[in-house]
Amino acid sequence: MSIGRAGSCTDSAFLFSGSGCSTVFGGSLRSWCSFFCGIACAETPSGPEKRGPSSSTAAPAVAPLRVAVTAPPVLDQHRIPAPQQNPGLVPERPKSTTLLKPRQESPIVIVSPLDDALNSSQELKNLLETHISPRHLGLKVLACLPAAESGVMVRVQTAAMAAPLEEHINAHPELNGVCRARAPRRPQPKILVYDVPHLEGDREEQENSFLGKLGSSNSFPAGSISVLFRRKGRGPAQHWVLSVDPVVYHCISGTNRLHWGLGSLRFRTFSEPIQCFRCLKFGHVQSRCRTQEELCSRCLGNHSYKSCSAVASTCRNCHAYNRQNRVGPRLKVNHTAVSRHCPLFLRACEEMRLRLPTVL
């Protein structure tokens, strides 16, 4: 007997309408039709079965595994991609130069010998130590340094100590007529005149001609003007550094040009310190330097810069500063001792600028 798949209870009735159905399978025909209809319904695919709440404990439902699908990046055809920089070609940012604060000016008393009575600064220092006792005067002397023309500079702790020391030296019977004490002279203002044209004659004639034409072209008050030195300018022209009287400087401080004949010359305030080109220190010139041999401005050697073979520059002033000041900031030494970017040179310029208003 062949049994086909029943699509409904009616079809099952026809399939099992034979006489042997009751005998072979047993039971009523209606019950067997219900049995095969249940099998057919179970094999037929259908939606999820909805069941009511059951008294028995249901198995926990397992959540389906969700896989996150990343969408491909959307490329904007109208956007221009930024060029990628090569790290090896990016220039290194220059490091900032260490700026030193201006030093506080210490009170100083200048003592100079009279009539060539003493031949050296050391002799004058020994004479002062013999006849003067700072402890008895209630003074605190910080240093006694050599000065020009066999003199000495006595540096005291406070400004109130400078005047009593000066009076005591000048009134001392053993020192009167041998040396003279005074307060340091305030430096006169300086200006730098740009691009002075070439003048005829020797150096003295050139300076006299320039100062005469400058005085007749401007209405200066009574005061002295002198030429200190010159610097190389554009082409044959030169930059002249002038020392002017404080009254004259106050008169021209509101402008930046000086009349000169039918034209004018541009100028600025010159606040650079004096530097010796033999020992490369600040505060004196080469003609008054006590160093016996010339020091190199490119390295730490004792030779002229013209015969220096050093590849890298080393500033001897910044090198000496780092050796003496191990706690403070370390200065860069990869420059020459005459560089205008030297931290010690910039500090000296600032100190000169701060002293300038006191001479007006």
How would you describe this protein?
This protein is of the alpha+beta class and 360 residues long. Among the domains are: 75 residues, 2-Layer Sandwich (Alpha-Beta Plaits); 80 residues, no CATH class; 70 residues, no CATH class. Helix content is 27%, strand content 15%. It contains ten helices and nine strands. A five-stranded antiparallel β-sheet has the order 6-7-5-9-8. Strands 2-3-1-4 form a four-stranded antiparallel β-sheet. Strand 8 and strand 9 form a beta hairpin. Helix 1 crosses helix 3. The longest helix is centred in the N-terminal third of the chain and has 15 residues. The protein is globular, with a radius of gyration of 51 Å.
Task: Write the SSE topology.
Elements: H1 9-15, H2 21-25, H3 29-43, E1 108-113, H4 121-131, H5 134-137, E2 141-146, E3 152-156, H6 162-171, E4 179-182, E5 190-196, H7 203-217, E6 225-232, E7 238-244, H8 246-252, E8 257-260, E9 263-269, H9 316-324, H10 343-355
Antiparallel strand pairs: 1-3, 1-4, 2-3, 5-7, 5-9, 6-7, 8-9
Helix pairs in contact: 1-3
Protein name: CCHC-type domain-containing protein
